[in-house]
């Protein structure tokens, strides 16, 4: 196996990037894509926190917490934060109760209980045809969130660059900042949110350490196709990059097929594949996630992870073994149920007058608010509970330059059918 890191790259640090701006190791310099000051865009909204370290200034309360609090305060239907409003399969919740009663309540082993690591390895084989050694190539984490944080902390040097598709799931920018790294966004554009491969190639500089890829993609719902993934794999191999893939929506694909990047030529030895039980089993509060990859990458990530949470969720780890062994009817049933909910909400949003970008995967749909006469998604989201009793999330928070997503809003459809129908009816009132 070729080492993922090119030692010559270290010698090249501190040089001018492809974008022509001099990078100085993560402190000063423009926030990528804005040409503006060295602060993330949210800072403008949240103000400076006096005790917060400089690298985290601007990362105020996440928009999901703000909008969920707004929903709770106003009693509006919360289509903002992505959590289901029903519990996951009873076999799995009952298995957690049984695990607690059976005394699985103390620290589990650092990499995760062997039964869960074996079940994750079987899952990778069963669904994606991937061979994974449960002893050396699987790490159980506190949700995908911890796997992402540990990966960035473990794999990035201060001043490294991380290339990611934009709009970007919010923890990526924050975790890159915590690692002293810098996120370089490559923007996906509606209506199809296809990857601009030339822009992706141009975003790679001598400082690029890794590519952080999310497919199926939150918030756009894009599912990268084989041609896109093959081209991305070639870029990773040609530039000797590590790939970290966030595949938490791997089972929520309605059009097209999910394909893990690690399965493409040259990728197995350089890809860390992250997923989570939260979305697949509608158990987002359990925070059981995992990372799979070649032993040297997993070793590195485990080194960081052990000092973040050390371990978590002992009884839930046992229960997720039951979940991962559920039959194909469960996984297919979840997908079909969510596909129907996607269709219901997309129809309601179209009827309400939004321009709707129908997602191929995930449980989110993005709309353009301009056909209804609105310009500013953030302002609309803040007033939506009052206008019609619904909460959504403004997509501008997913962009380095909020202007790029100003007119876009995200709705979650992982809610009961009657809730979605009621939300659609309320949103229809926006037109009048
Ligand atoms: C793209 C993406 N990655 C990671 C996560 C976090 O997953 P977990 O709850 O397992 O930490 C989410 C949750 O919404 C997500 O949308």
Question: What does the model show?
Answer:
- The protein has 432 residues and is of the alpha/beta class.
- The chain folds into two domains: 63-87 and 329-428, Aspartate Aminotransferase, domain 1, CATH 3.90.1150.10; 90-326, 3-Layer(aba) Sandwich (Aspartate Aminotransferase, domain 2).
- Helices cover 39% and strands 14% of the residues.
- The chain is built from 15 helices and 13 strands.
- A seven-stranded mixed sheet has the order 2-8-7-6-5-3-4, sandwiched between helices. A four-stranded antiparallel sheet has the order 9-10-13-12.
- Helix 4 packs antiparallel against helix 12 (314-324) and helix 6 (143-155) packs across helix 11.
- The longest helix is centred in the last third of the chain and has 25 residues, at 328-352.
- The radius of gyration is 21 Å and the shape is globular.
- The structure holds pyridoxal-5'-phosphate.
- Pyridoxal-5'-phosphate binds next to helix 6.
CATH level-4 homologous superfamily of the largest domain: Type I PLP-dependent aspartate aminotransferase-like (Major domain)
Strand order of the largest sheet: 2-8-7-6-5-3-4
CATH topology of the largest domain: Aspartate Aminotransferase, domain 2
What's the oligomerization state? single chain
Classify the secondary structure makeup into a structural class: alpha/beta
């Amino acid at each position: 196996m070729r080492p993922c890191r090119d030692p010559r790259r270290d010698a090249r640090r501190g040089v001018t990037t492809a974008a022509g701006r001099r990078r100085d190791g993560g402190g000063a310099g423009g926030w990528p894509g804005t040409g503006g000051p060295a602060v993330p865009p949210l800072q403008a909204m949240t103000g400076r926190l006096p005790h917060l370290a400089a690298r985290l200034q601007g990362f105020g309360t996440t928009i999901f917490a703000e909008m969920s609090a707004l929903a709770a305060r106003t009693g509006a239907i919360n289509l903002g934060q992505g959590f289901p409003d029903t519990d996951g399969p009873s076999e799995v919740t009952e298995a957690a109760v049984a695990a607690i009663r059976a005394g699985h309540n103390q620290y589990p082993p650092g990499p995760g209980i062997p039964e869960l690591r074996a079940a994750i390895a079987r899952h990778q084989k069963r669904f994606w045809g991937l061979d994974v050694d449960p002893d050396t190539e699987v790490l159980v984490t506190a949700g995908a969130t911890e796997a992402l944080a540990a990966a960035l902390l473990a794999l990035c040097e201060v001043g490294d660059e991380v290339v990611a598709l934009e709009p970007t799931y919010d923890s990526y920018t924050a975790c890159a900042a915590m690692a002293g790294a810098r996120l370089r966004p490559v923007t996906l554009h509606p209506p199809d949110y296809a990857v601009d491969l030339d822009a992706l190639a141009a975003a790679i500089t001598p400082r690029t350490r890794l590519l952080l890829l999310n497919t199926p993609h939150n918030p756009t719902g894009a599912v990268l196709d084989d041609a896109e993934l093959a081209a991305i794999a070639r870029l990773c191999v040609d530039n000797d990059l590590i790939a970290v893939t966030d595949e938490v929506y791997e089972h929520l694909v309605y059009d097209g097929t999910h394909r893990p990047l690690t399965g493409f030529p040259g990728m197995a030895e350089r890809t860390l594949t992250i997923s989570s039980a939260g979305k697949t089993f509608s158990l987002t509060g359990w925070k059981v996630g995992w990372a799979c990859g070649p032993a040297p990458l997993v070793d590195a990530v485990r080194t960081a992870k052990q000092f973040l949470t050390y371990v978590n969720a002992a009884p839930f780890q046992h229960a997720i073994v039951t979940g991962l062994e559920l039959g194909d009817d469960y996984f297919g049933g979840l997908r079909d149920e969510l596909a129907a909910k996607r269709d219901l909400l997309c129809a309601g949003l179209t009827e309400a007058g939004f321009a709707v970008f129908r997602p191929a995967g995930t449980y989110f749909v993005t709309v353009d608010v301009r056909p209804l006469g609105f310009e500013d998604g953030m302002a609309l989201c803040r007033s939506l509970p009052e206008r019609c009793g619904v909460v959504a999330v403004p997509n501008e928070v997913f962009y380095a330059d909020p202007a790029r997503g100003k007119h876009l809003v995200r709705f979650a459809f992982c809610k009961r059918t009657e809730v979605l129908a009621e939300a659609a009816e309320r949103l229809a009132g926006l037109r009048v």
